[in-house]
Amino acid sequence: MVAGTIAKWSSDMSVGVLVLDEEHRFLIEEMNSLHAIKKMKSQDTLENCLGRLICFAIKHFFHEESYMAKMRYSRMPAHKVAHDDFIVKMQSFLRRGADEDVTVLSVEIVEYLDEWCAQHILVEDRRYALEADSRSGQDRMWGGGRSR
Ligand SMILES: [Fe+2]
Ligand SMILES: [Fe+2]
């Protein structure tokens, strides 16, 4: 983690699909906004940031799952469960934000996002990219090519 942030997108995180890379970039920016909440102490800001993150994550997961379905990704069922669990967890944070201390809750949220970014974006999302790479002769879909 870069000081004061969850992460910073870099080409090491590329999944080889431009639209998904751009979404990961934006997702990480949204996560970093939540990191800043720790200083803001505002319930409204927490709810707004969480709401935006949930909406964008749902859209990104839909795109990613469509891509994985098209490439017939071998680990798609487990990957989809991880996406669904993330949304459920974010929604529970949103509910808890209504009556819990924002500064305490935001620490828990940032720890969860930090771990999720490291385990999901950096490991699980890269797995479908590696599987796509390993299949010789299969054309990349959705405007593939490494982002730089
Ligand atoms: Fe994913
Ligand atoms: Fe992703």
UniProtKB/TrEMBL annotation:
CDD domains: Hemerythrin
Gene3D superfamilies linked: Hemerythrin-like (1.20.120.50)
Record InterPro entries: Haemerythrin_Fe_BS, Hemerythrin, Hemerythrin-like, Hemerythrin-like_sf, Hemerythrin_metal-bd
Tagged with keyword Zinc: no
Protein name: Hemerythrin-like domain-containing protein
Molecular function (Gene Ontology), one example: metal ion binding
Organism: Telmatospirillum siberiense
Domain of life assignment: Bacteria
